[in-house]
Amino acid sequence: MSKGSLGAKLDKIPWWLVAIVLLGGWMVFSAISSADYRVIFTAVSRGMGVTISVSLIAYAASIVLGLGLGLMRSSNCRVAREMSTFYIELVRGLPMLVILYYIAFVGAPALAQALNSLLAPLINAGIIQKIEGRNFDFATRAVLALTLGYAAFIAEIFRAGIESVDRGQVEAAEALGMSHGQVMRRIVLPQAIRNVLPALGNEFVAIIKDSSLVSALGVQDITQLGKVYSASTFKFFETYNAVAFFYLCLTVTLSLLVRQLEKRLKRGVK
Asked: What would you measure as the largest C-alpha separation in the chain, in angstroms?
């Protein structure tokens, strides 16, 4: 094998991925060989299900809400555009932790009051009980906060995807007699969604990382369990190594899938 071909193969190796794999291998070896790490991994891993479920539910809901906001932002109706723009700019200007606290301690009680007002006849008749703020557990409040926060960012992704579709296609479809709804459903959205799939994948990676913020509400996710364990044992180094390992397993795997998706879409365009 010539030096040139060997150098070309070495250039293709993603050294960042090799370094992460080696780091992960070291963590797995530590978990196998160390009794302390085995206990920590067992304790922290119980929060994996909560982290994944919160992320998946919030992501799915934010996709739906974000698509609606993106369509409103691209609408010909000025009222819809102004309303969606107001929401998007307002929410994107707030830190996610502030949104989380606001929904948890302000939004949830306000929602309970609003539902009680709407259902007052049924409540007064004794058919249903009055809704209290405590009826919404903190996991539900966290999912709602992540949904409302990420919907604003996803709405902008959808808007960019819609605007990336050639205007000539829209005009040609309208010339054939299609309504605005038909044009969006049959011409624009299929192409727009294809264009924004990699960006939507990146948002899923981001929402998994930001799901760690739910630990501020005491939700038993990976971060919260790590915080509780380290506080009781003072093994901060080992515990947060384990926490970082779990998050890296999730995010790196998803990042690699997004990269593969981008490559396939590029080949499809060619």
From this structure: 87
**pTM for this prediction:** 0.85
Between CA 89 and CA 225 the distance in angstroms is 34
Domain that residue 169 falls in: 49-214
Task: Enumerate long-range contacts of 143-146, CB under 8 Å, 24 or more apart.
Answer: 143/54, 143/57, 143/58, 143/61, 144/103, 144/107, 144/108, 145/96, 145/99, 145/100, 145/102, 145/103, 145/104, 145/107, 146/54, 146/55, 146/58, 146/62, 146/96, 146/100, 146/207, 146/210, 146/211, 146/214
CB 143 within 8 A of CB 62: no
Distance from chain centroid for Cα 156? 14
Residue 73 lies in a domain: yes
Flag residues of the chain having pLDDT under 70. 1-12, 266-270
Structurally, the chain folds into a number of domains equal to: 1
- Report yes or no on 184 lying in a domain: yes
CA angle 257, 206, 217 (to 5 degrees): 135
Nearest to residue 224, comparing CAs of 264, 173, 232? 232
**Contact call for residues 75 and 96 (beta carbons, < 8 A):** no
User: Of 20, 31, 43, whose CA–CA distance to 233 is shortest?
Assistant: 43
Which domain CATH number covers 175? 1.10.3720.10
Q: Is residue 164 part of a domain?
A: yes
CA torsion sign for 31, 37, 39, 45 is: negative
Determine the Cα–Cα distance for residues 233 and 108; give it in Å rounded to an integer. 34
